[in-house]
Amino acid sequence: MAKKTYIKAITDALDIVLDEDPKTLIFGEDVGKNGGVFRTTQGLQDKYGEDRVFDTPLAESGILGLATGLGVTGWRPIPEIQFMGFSFEAIDQIAGQEARMRFRFDGKQHSPVTIRTPYGGGTHTAEMHADNLENFFTGVPGLRVVMPSNPYDAKGLLISSVESNDPVLFMENLKLYRSMKDDIPEGKYTVPLDQANVVQEGTDLTIVAYGAEVNEAKKVADKLKDKASIEVIDLRTVSPIDTDTIFKSIEKTHKVVIVQEAQKMAGVGAQVASAIAEDAILSLDAPIGRVAAPNSVYPFAQGEDYWIPGADEIEEKVNEILNY
């Protein structure tokens, strides 16, 4: 075990999959000699060569087009979209091609592509560099969307994603890259896809969150521990959503607050709330609480801290639901 940052855990995962499978390839803008804009792939080109870790032109549609072709010809590509806001250029390749591959070929052909991209606020980046765009992709059939909240999960989930035969959009939170450390086992381990994690058990209220908001939820649970026993669930995979874990939790707590950093409209939180309303509403003793960003364009850096939901907003909603 060693204390490692979120970003170092991701680098470790990439090193492991490159070492284990010669059919894995990493490519994207500046991922080679420079090691990526955040140095996530630093040292990997030197270790595995320019044929396996290489730079591409500044063209996301080309990067994902290459990944699509490689994925159906026996390779296991790991393309990088340098910032989530640039993914609009590649939506056709992701949603129109890779996600449909298994359906299109009646299960005889797969698309084992793992698309890595950083997202999220809190670091005061330029416009279109911090957008939370999971809402655009979670409704795409055939595409898995994974959003780890901590270094341990980041490494294990990334290895699981690369080994999966389905396309995965693997979203890495910018703020978490170097702001938190975990004890990380050396060598290979995996964290299962499509399974939420109960990171803190409780009996009075359930908070469902993902990404950086899991850590904000934990702050609230700790702050209110003398007042209420709060269970915190980390979705980890936001498409598909592990509703079984959520339903089991609210059968015990009878109250729920759903938290996301992205805009509220048509988000992951809306899907969770809809699933609870349809299949587990009789477990609740209070309305479903939701905390999310405003339905507005992601703000410039100066307004970011006011826009992103934090522990204060979560605490206010939790108290409202507890006192209902």
Automatic annotation (TrEMBL):
<dbReference type="InterPro" id="IPR029061">
    <property type="entry name" value="THDP-binding"/>
</dbReference>
<keyword id="KW-0786">Thiamine pyrophosphate</keyword>
<protein>
    <submittedName>
        <fullName>Alpha-ketoacid dehydrogenase subunit beta</fullName>
    </submittedName>
</protein>
<dbReference type="Pfam" id="PF02779">
    <property type="entry name" value="Transket_pyr"/>
</dbReference>
<dbReference type="InterPro" id="IPR005475">
    <property type="entry name" value="Transketolase-like_Pyr-bd"/>
</dbReference>
<dbReference type="GO" id="GO:0016491">
    <property type="term" value="F:oxidoreductase activity"/>
</dbReference>
<dbReference type="Pfam" id="PF02780">
    <property type="entry name" value="Transketolase_C"/>
</dbReference>
<feature type="domain" description="Transketolase-like pyrimidine-binding">
    <location>
        <begin position="4"/>
        <end position="179"/>
    </location>
</feature>
<dbReference type="InterPro" id="IPR009014">
    <property type="entry name" value="Transketo_C/PFOR_II"/>
</dbReference>
<keyword id="KW-0560">Oxidoreductase</keyword>
<dbReference type="InterPro" id="IPR033248">
    <property type="entry name" value="Transketolase_C"/>
</dbReference>
